[in-house]
Each structure stands twice: as structure tokens, then as C-alpha cells.
Design goal:
11 helices, about 80% helix
């Protein structure tokens, strides 16, 4: 929602200022300039990035417009999931959650938290590492290093769409110049025409520079930073997840497992101890 609101403010401010200056809006309607700049920008994006990154970029932009991200409830669900798992471990031992880990989509515990199951990367990080803990083939130091490597890889992959969009943004002003120069070349064919005709074509050419700078700094660049912010939010979520997994590996009680994770939740959305005790039933 913030993205859409920001775009409205940017567009409203630019066009509002143009209107106050008594600008002619019909001069801004230059389809050829739009095709050159936007088409070349999208083409460069396709050339420089694999389909996976482009697909992630599209999904990320849609999520940004929808305002989707990791909110307070997402962290509470994660804490409650590990509370439920650690309660079972405390009562019956690690082997008690083996079937839940091997078949999470059939698990009564996991099915209580569909959003976690819907995030395949998070689901696999949980089940793969719990599987390692259950097997007993990994010590705390190895698990810590493994989780760090998994987080680094996941975050790097999550930031690739933002980097791709930022690279595209950096190139758009140059493409605006290309469109403007193209317009000047066309204007050269009208030098024998009256001044008003020449002026019209020069103005049309300058729309390319105007559009390139506006798209870069007002639209594409801010979206790239929004996607980068989403990747940072994802990293924080994974850091909380790591703390919970490490707590289970160390054999902590359910209350302490919750506290390990709760302590890593950002302060502005962190649930209180009392709230978690109420939600977990103890």
C-alpha cells in the first residue's frame, strides 16, 4: 500500500507542478519516447538476468504493491510452531517429531500454520535442520555454521531481483538520452519548417530525458529499494528461525525456546512474554 501511495505522491507532485507552470499536457504524450525507453529498459533486464530472477522480480513487485511482508502474526506463528514441537520433544523425545518433520503437510502441528507451509524455503529450512538434529549427526557448532550458510544463500537469492531492478534503474536515464537524441535527429528533418514546428519536435525530444530521469528516481529506483527492504525483512525472519532451531538442538524447554526466538523479533512487533504464554497455553 505504501508503494502505491508513494507513486501517487510522486506522479501528483510532478504533474501538479507541471500544471502550475501552465505546461501543455499533450506534449507529454509521446508514444515513441515511451516505447524506446521502457522497451529498451525491459530488454536490458531480460538480457542481463536469468528467468528465475525475472520471475522473482515480478512476484516481489506484486507483493510490494499488495503490502505483503513479515508482520507480527508471522513471527507469533513461528514461535508457536516451535513451542508445539518443543513441547512434544520435552514429553516424548526427539523421535516424537520425526513423522512431523518428514511429512509436514500431513502433520497436525505444521498444518496449524499454513503460511509457514506455503513458504517452501522456510519449510525446508525447518524440516531439513530438525532432521539433522533428530539424526544426531551434527553438533551445535556445525549446526550454527550450516544455518548461517543457509541464511546467507537465501538472502543473497532474495536480493537478486532488487539488484537487477536497480541496475535497470541506473540505465534508464541513459536510455532517456538515447530517446532525446533520436528526437533531435528527427528534428533535423524539420529545420526548414516554421519555428513552432521545430519547437514542437524539440519539446517532444526532451520528453525522453524527462521520462528517463522521472522513471529512474521516482519509480524504478524506489521500487528496487523496496524489494531490498523486503529481502532484509526476510533475513530478520530467518535469524529468528535460526535462534529457534538452535534452542531445540540444545534441548531447551518450550518456554526458553520461545524466548530465544522472541528476543530476536524486531522490537516494534515483538510479542510480550505474557502474550506468548497466553497463546501457547502456558
Amino acid at each position: 500500500m505504501n508503494v502505491l501511495l508513494g507513486y501517487i505522491i510522486v506522479l501528483g507532485s510532478v504533474l501538479g507542478g507541471y500544471a502550475i507552470a501552465k505546461g501543455n499536457f499533450s506534449m507529454l504524450i509521446q508514444p515513441a519516447e515511451y516505447i524506446v525507453i521502457i522497451g529498451a529498459a525491459v530488454g536490458s533486464l531480460v538480457i542481463g538476468n536469468p528467468p528465475k530472477v525475472i520471475s522473482g522480480l515480478v512476484k516481489g513487485m506484486l507483493a510490494a504493491f499488495a503490502g505483503k511482508g513479515y508482520v507480527r502474526k508471522d513471527y507469533i506463528d513461528l514461535l508457536l510452531l516451535f513451542n508445539d514441537l518443543s513441547v512434544m520433544v520435552r514429553r516424548e523425545g526427539l523421535l516424537a517429531i520425526e513423522n512431523d518433520v518428514e511429512h509436514p503437510h500431513e502433520s497436525k502441528i505444521f498444518k496449524k500454520y499454513p503460511k509457514i507451509l506455503g513458504n517452501h524455503e522456510v519449510e525446508h529450512m525447518i524440516t531439513d535442520n530438525l532432521r539433522n538434529i533428530i539424526s544426531g549427526g551434527i553438533d551445535a557448532t556445525q549446526l550454527d555454521n550450516l544455518l548461517d550458510a543457509q541464511i546467507e544463500g537465501a538472502v543473497e537469492e532474495a536480493t537478486e531481483p532488487a539488484h537487477a531492478l536497480q541496475n535497470m534503474s541506473d540505465g534508464i536515464p541513459g536510455l532517456g538520452i538515447v530517446a532525446a537524441v533520436q528526437g533531435v535527429i528527427i528534428t533535423m528533418n524539420y529545420l526548414a519548417e516554421p519555428p513552432e514546428i521545430i519547437g514542437h519536435h524539440v519539446a517532444a525530444a526532451l520528453v525522453g530525458t524527462f521520462l528517463g530521469v522521472l522513471l529512474c528516481y521516482g519509480f524504478v529506483g524506489p521500487m528496487a529499494r523496496a524489494l531490498e527492504g523486503k529481502a532484509k525483512d526476510f533475513k530478520i525472519y530467518l535469524v529468528v528461525l535460526k535462534a529457534l532451531i538452535m534452542a531445540v538442538a540444545q534441548g531447551c524447554s518450550p518456554q526458553i525456546v520461545r524466548e530465544f526466538g522472541r528476543a530476536m523479533v524486531p522490537g516494534d512487533i515483538r510479542p510480550t512474554v505474557q502474550e506468548m504464554e497466553k497463546l501457547s497455553g502456558k
